[in-house]
Amino acid sequence: MKIIKLKYLDHQDTGSLVFFESLKDIPFEIKRIYSIQGAKKGTHRGKHAHKNLKQFLFCPYGKIQVLLDDGYKKTEIILDHPQKGLLIETMIWRELVWLEDHSVLCVAASDYYDAEDYIRDYEEFKQTRKIR
Ligand code: TYD
Known about the structure:
- By secondary structure, the chain is mainly beta.
- The protein is built from one helix and twelve strands; from the N terminus they run ββββββββββββα.
- 8% of the residues lie in helices and 48% in strands.
- The two termini are 18 Å apart.
């Protein structure tokens, strides 16, 4: 897990601009980008780990709690500013909780969507971590 502070250009009248570049600001080549919007406060998502996928998360609007677990240690991160990016390496269990209505989650991923890359069972995740 790593917090990456994104570049930010603010303008009082026309809004702020946040940007990042593949292999420059984040340490992998981006193959997929997705976003989640329209979720209400209290929404829980995630509850899985990825075998090989790396992801970079940021929240351009609102407030989202991210709970990370490497099988040994649990960490909590709050994404509450567009500049605050979170790098999640492979084999990390994550849970996301929407702390404000309509918070937006944007994710840059290191690979195309692959259902086989998910571990959705926590016990399986813990076992897999032990033997890796
Ligand atoms: P999932 O990654 O489980 O979302 P979350 O953990 O935030 O609840 O994805 C939800 C559904 O969307 C699942 O059926 C897979 C599908 N999906 C895609 O088809 N492509 C994608 O890029 C993503 C992220 C999900």
